[in-house]
Amino acid sequence: MAQFETNRLKNTKWYSFSPGFTSSDRLSGSLALSLTKRNDMLASSYRLQYQHQLSSPTDSCDKAAYSVEFAALWGEGISGKSGYIVFLAGMGLTRRTYCQGEEEEYARKSRTLVGVPVQIEMGLYLNKKWSVGLNLIAGWNFLEPYAGGQLKLSYHLDYSKIDDEE
Questions:
Q1: Residue from 38, 40, 77 nearest 157 by CA
Q2: pLDDT in tens, 22-54
Q3: Alpha helices in 68-151, H assignment, sequence order
Q4: Is the separation of the CB atoms in 60 and 104 below 8 Å?
Q5: CA–CA gap between residue 43 and residue 76 (Å, rounded)
Q6: Which domain covers residue 149, as residue numbers?
Q7: HSE, side-chain direction, 13 A CA sphere, residue 151
Q8: How many CA atoms lie within 13 A of 133 on its CB side?
Q9: What is the pLDDT of residues 53-81, one digit of tens each?
């Protein structure tokens, strides 16, 4: 007989710091701070992410492109004794600054975009409060869609569901 088992992520929340790279503007560095929590029904995450163009621009614009994104994501995750994985998708608001134009008439522009961010968050528990892992991220918008990866360090506030029993 199958027995219902509560999701081990239930009633947990964690803060994450995640540096990495994305495909935005050929190659960009990214830095994200996020809060992820799991209640009775679903996981939710709130992410603030900064991306800055790393590869030198091929145009005559003297400054690299950058963006700041705030995203609210929802999904589901599972956890075992040594790790977890969470699948999330949601809505994001991005403020993007970039160069546009032809030949020597480039102009700096800024736009605010609405997009659809997606994230797969994986982590391995170091102990009851800390985990390390990987975020696979992507974002769709009309100006500069991106995909990338980030290493992450997370601090867990409530680890009551993950213990050394069994």
A1: 38
A2: 998 888 999 999 999 988 789 999 999 999 988
A3: none
A4: yes
A5: 5
A6: 13-156
A7: 2
A8: 22
A9: 887 655 556 677 899 999 999 999 988 88
162 in any annotated domain: no
State the total domains in the chain.
1
Nearest to 50 by CA among 20, 16, 90: 20
- What gap in Å lies between CA 154 and CA 16, rounded to an integer? 4
Q: How far apart are CA 73 and CA 63, in angstroms?
A: 31
- Give Cα separations from 11 to 5, 38, 112, 160 (angstroms): 14, 6, 34, 8
Q: Is residue 166 part of a domain?
A: no
Phi-psi category of residue 25: left, alpha or beta, with phi > 0 → left and psi -120 to 50 → alpha = left
Q: Which amino acid is at 145?
A: P
List, in order, residues 6 or more apart from 105 with CB less than 8 Å away.
none
- The rounded radius of gyration (Å) of the Cα atoms in the chain is 19
